[in-house]
């Protein structure tokens, strides 16, 4: 089982060098993992919710083609996905967007996604795709009990911190781009308030890879770890 989670990617455009970017390195690892599990005949399905996400998905696929030969299908929706969206998929990618909308769109097929990942189909979550991979997904919000805990501008349009049922691919909750957005405060407060059991923050241009029973951090930023303690929480960081 390979789970790849990133706080955000800068996607190289056509005609620009991809060398040295997380996008290039991550795609190379991901495609190699897919081939290990399914052989040369791979079909990677990229799920996108909304117009902006669809554009991001197409740019990611273009970057992926420059890093390796694989067959991609981009599936876009404005509401919900159905099972045919991932029929025949060797691996599943969920791109960024509004976490609550992404979670709602995946709800009809979340059981099938869990089944496939458990059967060793690699999963790549980018931004919102990483957030909703958790058992308890912190889909947004900037206050708890009316008290600010993180910047309002990065609350995804939600007032009180909201926890939704996620895909359940990992036990810990996830926030993305904490160094850039201050979203770590949401995770710290939610952990202290027992809304979630703890979690991780993944910076932009940074990824957590969970494979073969090991955790690996790659990229330019940090992985932030928040764990509940007897008198509050403990916060630590881990780099590549």
Q: What is this structure's SSE topology?
A:
Elements: E1 2-6, H1 22-38, E2 43-49, H2 51-67, E3 71-77, E4 91-94, H3 99-106, H4 110-118, E5 123-126, H5 128-131, E6 136-140, E7 143-144, E8 147-148, E9 162-165, E10 173-176, H6 178-181, H7 184-192, E11 198-202, E12 206-211, E13 214-219, E14 222-229, E15 232-239
Parallel strand pairs: 1-5, 2-3, 2-4, 4-5, 10-11
Antiparallel strand pairs: 1-12, 6-9, 7-8, 11-14, 12-13, 14-15
Protein name: Peptidase S51
InterPro entries: Class_I_gatase-like
Low-confidence stretches: none
Order of helices and strands: EHEHEEHHEHEEEEEHHEEEEE
* CATH class term: Alpha Beta
Any idea how many domains? 1
Output the strand order for the largest sheet.
3-2-4-5-1-12-13
Q: Tally the helices.
A: 7
Question: Span between N and C termini?
Answer: 21 Å
Shape: globular
The CATH architecture assignment turns out to be 3-Layer(aba) Sandwich
Query: Can you tell me the CATH superfamily?
Result: Class I glutamine amidotransferase (GATase) domain
Average residue-wise pLDDT:
90
Strand content: 25-35%
How would you describe the overall organization of this protein?
The radius of gyration is 17 Å and the shape is globular. The mean pLDDT is about 90. It has helices spanning about 20-40, 50-65, 100-105, 110-120, 130, 180, 185-190; strands at about 1-5, 45-50, 70-75, 90-95, 125, 135-140, 145, 145-150, 160-165, 175, 200, 205-210, 215-220, 220-230, 230-240. By secondary structure, it is an alpha/beta fold. The protein has seven helices and 15 strands. The protein has a single domain (about 1-240), classed as Rossmann fold, CATH 3.40.50.
């Amino acid at each position: 089982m390979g789970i790849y989670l990133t706080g955000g990617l800068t996607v190289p455009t056509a005609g620009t060098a991809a060398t040295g970017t997380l996008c290039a390195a991550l795609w190379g690892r991901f495609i190699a993992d897919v081939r290990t599990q399914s052989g040369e005949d791979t079909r990677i399905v990229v799920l996108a919710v909304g117009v902006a996400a669809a554009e991001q998905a197409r740019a990611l696929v273009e970057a992926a083609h420059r890093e390796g030969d694989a067959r991609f299908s981009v599936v876009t929706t404005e509401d919900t996905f159905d099972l045919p969206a991932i029929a025949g998929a060797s691996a599943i990618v969920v791109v960024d967007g509004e976490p609550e909308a992404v979670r709602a769109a995946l709800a009809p097929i979340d059981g099938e996604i869990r089944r496939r990942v458990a059967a060793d189909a690699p999963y790549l979550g980018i931004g919102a795709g990483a957030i909703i991979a958790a058992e308890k997904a912190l889909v947004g919000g900037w206050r708890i009990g009316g008290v600010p805990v993180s910047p309002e501008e990065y609350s995804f349009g939600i007032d009180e911190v909201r926890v939704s049922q996620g895909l359940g691919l990992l036990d810990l909750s996830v926030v993305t781009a904490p160094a850039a957005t201050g979203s770590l405060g949401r995770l710290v407060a939610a952990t202290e308030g027992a809304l979630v059991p703890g979690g991780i923050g993944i910076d932009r241009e940074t990824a957590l890879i969970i494979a073969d029973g090991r955790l690996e951090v790659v990229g330019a930023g940090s992985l932030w770890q928040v764990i509940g303690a007897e008198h509050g929480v403990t916060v630590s960081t881990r780099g590549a």
